[in-house]
Specification:
Oligomer: single chain
Strand content: 35-45%
Largest sheet: 5 strands, antiparallel
Distance between the termini: 91 Å
Structural class: mainly beta
Order of helices and strands: EEEEE
Shape: elongated
Length: 93
């Protein structure tokens, strides 16, 4: 996606972002103040008719948890422990 001229348009979940700098290799855009963590749709476009690319991005957090994996193998037998019960006598002095 290489522009012939001009700056790209960048949108995060439909909100237009201010492009700080851009080149054929990179784009730096300012995120809106107070943006919370989450997953968003990032759309970058150039020109008319628009050449565009869309990405799903996660900012400030991890994505949703995946499914639980399979159970691992059973561990080795631990050492034998001898349980001892101690009883104390109540005494009055």
């Amino acid at each position: 996606m290489t522009p012939e001229s001009g700056q790209p348009a960048v949108h995060l979940d439909g909100v237009s972002l201010v492009v700080v700098t851009s080149s054929p290799q990179s784009i730096v855009a300012a995120l809106p103040a107070g943006l919370g963590a989450g997953s968003f749709r990032l759309v970058v476009s150039y020109g008319v008719p628009a050449i565009f690319a869309a990405f799903d991005v996660t900012i400030g957090a991890v994505g949703p948890p995946g499914p639980q994996g399979p159970a691992g193998p059973q561990g080795a037998q631990g050492p034998s422990v001898r349980m001892v019960t101690l009883a104390a006598e109540a005494r009055t002095f």
